[in-house]
Every structure is written in structure tokens, then in C-alpha cells.
Amino acid sequence: MPLLEPKPEALRPGSRPSDPAPDRVQGRQAGGTPEPLRTDLTELLGADKVLTKISDLVRYASDASPYRFVPQVVVVAEDIDDVSAVMSYAHGKGREVVFRAAGTSLNGQAQGEDILVDVRRFWAGVEVLGDGERARIGPGTTIVRANATLARHGRVLGPDPASAIACTIGGVVANNASGMTAGTTRNSYRMLASLTFVLPSGTVVDTGDPQADADLAHAEPALCEGLLAIKREIEADAELTRRIRAKYEIKNTNGYRLDAFLDGSTPVEILRGLMVGSQGTFGFISEVVFDTLPLDRKVTTALLFFPSLTAAAAAVPVFNEAGALAVELMDGNTLRASVSVQGVPQDWAQLPKETAALLVEFRAPDGDQQAAYEKKAAQVLEGLDLVAPVASVSNEFTRDAKTISGYWKARKAFVTAVGGSRPSGTTLITEDFAVPPARLAEACEALLELQTRHGFDAAVAGHAAHGNLHFLLAFDAGKPADVDRYAAFMDDFCRLTVERFDGSLKAEHATGRNIAPFLELEWGSGATELMWRTKQVIDPDGVLAPRIVLDRDPKAHLRGLKTIPKVELIADPCIECGFCEPTCPSEDLTTTPRQRIVLRREMMRQPSGSPVEQELIEAYGYDAVDTCAGDSTCKLACPVGIDTGAFMKGFRHARHSPREEKVAALTAKNFKAVEASARLAVAAADKIGDRLLTSVTTAARKAIRPDLVPEWLPEIPAAAARKLPRTARASATAVYYPACVNRIFGTPGDVSLPQAVVAVSARAGRPVWIPDDVAGTCCATIWHSKGYDEGNTIMANRIVEAAWGWTAGGRLPLVVDASSCTLGIAHEVVPYLTDDNRELHAELKIVDSLVWAADELLPHLTVERTVGSAVLHPTCSMEHLGDVAQLKAIAEACADEVVMPDDAGCCAFAGDRGMLHKELTESATAKEAAEVTSRAFDAHLSANRMCEVGMDHATGRTYYSVLVELERATRPARGERSLHGSPKAQ
Fold it and tell me: What is the mean pLDDT of residues 953-971?
């Protein structure tokens, strides 16, 4: 064991409920996957594809729903052969299989009690067909990722669920999720051109293959005959046919798509329809081909406030008639809860409870059509009785993209924002139903009365244009009385929806576990039995996802409800929605932010010292704490701003020994000497050689501790010059602060970053001054990222005091040349400052070098030459600072073609974490690196030295600061020095 290995005990919960939770993982499961299942699947697929630790099983046990089922094993399938092998094994052994992609399902569809198959990691990809009219998409691709590629062709997918940032194509099709604008005409059932899927028998069907029916008839004659027999039976029953057609006039995802038997004439065509909304119970969707829609870029939007929910609902039809593409409803509780979302006006917290709002949007292909829509919208507004209860309410239509984005951010945060504000320790259930749009106001009134009668606070939002409402219920699943209250509400709600409104019990979230017992109530016994027969025809052995759509147990929706034990305050609001996961650098390596919180909650469910708790703690150190990049991009993706990076830094601090904290503090106190020594060491490394340094650091990591000793990487740059460029204070328009990383490590080429910043600033008539005493100062991120609180406090206060003096009390801006350091000085140091220094900090104007260059320099510069192409790496700090647009603007001045990779994300190098755990950076950058290396670029640009090193390591290409390229592009022709090959003359 390494000398300084951290003690796992530091991660043990300090306080927990007095009694273990009723749904805790039992001690007999502490060993993980039981035999012979463990050995069987390992031998069948390989150990790297089979997850067996109890920590792995627990982190996959939760999705965005109120249910929790712990699988026996998790298989990470890489291809169709793996999927077929698992299904074949399940058939032979009488086991069950559930597929899981993003885990954003709200009704437990992504959970299984036996074999759970992860079909996200290796299943992403987008191929644009033709000019974008169609796209072939892998099931593990998120909606946002697919649309990013399609946008370059002026196209977009039809389905647009609020979870688009995280939900995957496979799940969207399997649940027929629709969203804000899809309704019944733009959903997967209508927009799917073809799909490829694997049946429970292992047979692969491509519905786009002209030979598909012949092949299926040969491989599965009984299945084909069974489907055609059901088709004949339905078509022979005129009343049933009429009923099926009527059920899909409004949004409906409850049960199987019986209209597939009416719309399809052959078994393959029938299966093509049935797979949509089948919720993983008929097969695995391995690929889809979507018909796409034009991306109408002319957008006009308003957020309109009404005195009541019924008044807002009553206004929906007039906007539908005016041509609005989206009409979204939000009640008062939803509006007030959304103040937790960054950018939402804080005075919404004072909105009266009765207030409601409609988010109305028109989208047009051109300016003329946009103007026509706006004229109709203005006419509608004249007849509405709107209110403005708080100052931020304008009740006006706007074209401003930022304002519109803020409206949609508030709307899409419905589940997470309202859920995040629920009482701590309560479980959240999201219900989803539809009524004929003309009866929406009546349904709202009835729903509010029902919620009040059962003691639930109203929280209602929905796709009002389509008669589709969502509401939330919060209760304590550990209290039988609360569960009984929920059960009584569901009985009354389902009868109300069906008997009074003839509505759909699931409009777009699909049946799942919580509506399965009520399927017959909505569809009647005859249609429901046809669904059971369809399942028997396609999956006669019941291998796939039992109890998710069909369940004869009238209390099935009460089984598996998960408790939500309280955890640390920073993470407690989490509702396990999964929005954070696609942004997480460790998503494909160890754990995600959601999973880190899920694992912590299971520790809280356990009695202290239990075998399960011990196993979870042992795994948590590396899987959760060490391999968290700490970049906090999860906070940006989370609608309620949960910062799991900060959560993990807290654990790093807890694991430090007093000796480690003392050493870190001494390092901060003596950083001037440390900085000089580091620069000398890097310079010496050039003479020693990469191979020897790698061997020495590898040995030291084994002897001391991998999380303390960085591993030498060949991509580590040479040392920076000992002296910084000479500048004058007298004429300076800003103070330039070269970050310590740029004072230690050099820049590729013969012009350093400090030289470039000084030169280009002077060239634009905005000279900068570098203080003589910057050595020994730092943004404090070195200590902050590792959880060294004392060292962080020392350096945070030192840099603020120095900056206040350098800038003459804030009269000059402080320009920082590394985005992570800008973020550190501008924001992250604040909690560690003394009261006096917090006042000084408030007077500082801290400017990232990208913003300085784009806003202050570019307008005054003349571009003399450009490179042909440049690819960008936007860092996570740029995302936090909001200056990715400036990175792009500078690059566009320097290159004829600028590419921002669709898969760009945090590189996870995180200062030195990429040297402590290089596997983290390699995993985090894999997709972006593949995109970058798929073609040649003349320049690879970013604005953070260690992130550039991380991308060097990932791609084998040389990244450098965009400001260095800006200096080269604007350098006067005389005396030109080529830094990166022969430039292309303009």
C-alpha cells in the first residue's frame, strides 16, 4: 500500500437517520453480482464489459423516476453481438433483461432487477443523409448532440423533450417522448423513416431493408403470423378500430401503439410502429433513421402572465389558431420555484400563488413570415386580461435570443427546479397526462381541486397547445401513511382523467411502472388483452423488461418506491434527473455527478458499519472523489445548480491528514520559491528525457500515492522564460496578470503567450502593464481543486490584496491570461477571503484575456494574414465565464474556417489531475479527439495552457493560445516571423 494512501474512513457519513431505510441494499448483496451469473457473463463477454461490484450495481439502480431496483449485474454492451449474446443467455437461463441509456425516464423504464444492459456508452453517432432531410443516429446520442450536427444543415429533429441535453435517441423512440412542440405530428412515430432493432430471439431487423419482410418471415414465421392475426382481429372490429384512432388524436404513450396494426400492412411495418413507445419490452433499438424538419431560425417569443391557471389555459386556443408552434403553461408554484435557476428574475419569488404564465413561441423561415406572426400575436394580446404582479414582467413579445433562452431555461427546469425545492427527504413523482385541448382549462381546475383534497401542493406545467399537462407530487416513501396518500390520489386521478375527460394517463412519458396497473382502466379489457397478446407474440419467454408496461398487480406502482435520505446540503436537492451526466468528464470512466450522489444516499440508508456501506466507501475514493475533474460543468447543466465538483472537493479535504494540510499551506506561503523551482525542474526535464521521467514518477506514485504525485507525460511543455516582457505602468490601460502556469510552462513557437498579449495590446493602442512582483502569487486554484483549505485561504487573500494594489484600487482592469485562473480570481476565491478582502475584491474588475482581446483589441487591429482552418477547444472555465463566443470571435479573425467540435467538452486535465489520473483525460477527450483527428487543421486553439497540454495528449496535435495566433495574424508584415508554418496571405 502507498505510504500516504488516504483512509477510507474519512468518507463514512458522520450523521445519518436513526433507523436504516426500508429500501436499503441488504447485506447479502455486499459481494455484488452472485455466482454463477458473474462468471457466466464474464466468460461470455469479457471482464471489461461486466460490472459486478455492489457500488456499480447501486449507481445503476436509480434513474429520474421515483423507483429504485438494484440489478444483479450491469453489462456495458459495445455492439449488436453483445446484445444478442446477452439475450440468448437470458433465454437459456430464464433470466430478464432491461436496457438503459441515459436513465432520464420518469417512470422506472431504465431499471431492472436482473441483467441491466448499458446501451449509451458505445452507441452514439450521427450521419447526415443527403442535405440533411434524414439522419441516421445511434441510440446513445443525445437529442442536443444530434441537433448540433443537423443545425449546420438547417435541419432539426421533431421530438424536443425538456431533457434533450441528456436523453438519448433510443430512449426517446422507445418512449415516444415528444416535448414542447412535437405534439402528435412531429413525434417519433410520425418522423421515423426506419429503424434497426434486435428482437428478444436475437433476430436483427432493419425496417429500411427491402428484403426485411422476406428475411423476417424466414427467421420468425410464428411471430409474423401472430402479428398479422392481431391485425386482422383489430380491423374486423369497427368499434375497436374507431377507438384506437380516437385515442391517438391527442398525445398518448400509455400501452403499446395499437394503431401500428392499422398503419402497417406487413409484419415489418407493424413492428416499425410497435417499437415506438414499446419501452424496451419488444427489443433493442440499435439505430434509427429520422426524417428531419426545417430549422426555422426566425423566433418570436413572449412570457405572458395571467391571474389564474384556468385563465391561462383558456387563452391557449387563440394562440394555437394564430399559428404558435409552442404554447407552454406554468403555474405559480412552478414560476416561484424556478428562481433557483440562474438567470430567472428573482422577483418571481414574490409572485402570487394563483398566478400562471404562458410561454408562447412563433417560429418562421423568413422575416416576412415572422412579421405576419407578430401581427397576429399582437391582435391576440389585445383581447387578453394579463397581469404584471412583479417588476420584471413585461408581457411583450421579443426577438432577443438571450431573453428567449432565459424563458425556455425556466420552463425546461420544471421538474428539477420544483423538485429541488421540495421538502428534504421526500420522493418526487412526475405525472403526465393529456386531455382534449379544448378542455384544458376544465382539467386544470379539476386537477387543482384533486391535489388540494389529497394534501398535495400544486405544481403544474405542460405543453398546453396539445392538452398535455405535467404535475409533481412529493411525499416520504419511507412513511406508510404518505404512500397510502399517494395511492389514494392516483386512484382518483386516473379515474378523473379517464372517466371525465377520456384522456391519456401518459401523454409522453410512457406507461412505465406507475401507470401499468391503470392500463386497463384507460384502454378497456379488450384492447389491453391485445397488448398482452402482442407481448406474447414478440417476447414469448418474457425476457425483456417485465412489469414495465404490463402488470396485473393493482399495487405495482407502489412497489420499489425509493426513499431519499438527506445528504450533504450541497447535494441534497438532487432529484437524480441525470441532466448533469453528458457534461461529466468521468462519465465513461467511473461515475457521474448523479451517481456520486446516488452512492452517497445509499451510504445514508445503511446502518453504520454494514458490509454494504464498507464496500461503497472502499470504492468511493477512486470512483467518485479521485476521478472527479472538479470542473463543475455539472453545475451548469443542473437546473438547480448543484455543484458536485465542489461536493467532491469537500471529500478531498476530509481525507487530508493534518500533515498534508500543513505542507500545502507552507507551499502557499513560499510559492515564489516553489514557482521558481518548478520552472527549473521543467527546464531540467528537457535534458533528462521523457522515458526516465515517466519511470521515476510512476515508481514514486506507487510508493507514495497516485493522487499526490503527478505522472510525467511527454506532452508536458518546455519551461517558460525566466523573465516576463518589460512593460510600463505609466501608459497602461490595464494590468496584465500572467497566470503562474504561463510563468512556469512555455508556449509552442518562438513567441510566448505573455509576449503575445503585451504585443497585441500595444498594437491595438491598449497597452498593458505586468507588475514586477507577480512571482509567488496564484489564483489559488491549485489548492482549491484539491481541497486544501488553509493553503487556498492564504493564496486567495494574497492575490486579492496584490491585485487591489496593482490596479490602484480597481481603477484599472486586471487581465488574466488563463480562463481557469480568471474564474478562480473572479469567483472561486471569494468564500475564502477575509471580510476586509472581500470588500477589496468587490472593487476589482477581473477580465479574461479572451474578453479583453475580443472586446478591447479586435476593433482596433488589422488582420494581415490568416490560416486556412482552426479547430477550437473551449474550456470548462470558459463555459463558466460565458466567454466561448469571444474565443470563437478571435479565432474567426485569424482563420478562414473555424470549427467548434460538436463533442467538445471538459478535457479533465484540471491543472494537474490529468497527470495524476491520465486515464481521466483520455476518457474525457476521446470523442472530441476523434472528431479533431478526423481531418487536418492549420491551427489548434484554446486559451488555457494545461487544457492545451491535455488536448495535445489526447490528439497528438499541438494546441496553443488563440491570443498567440491573434498576435501572428495582426503582426505587421515587415520583420515577420513564422510561428506555425507558412501563413496564408489575405
Answer: 97
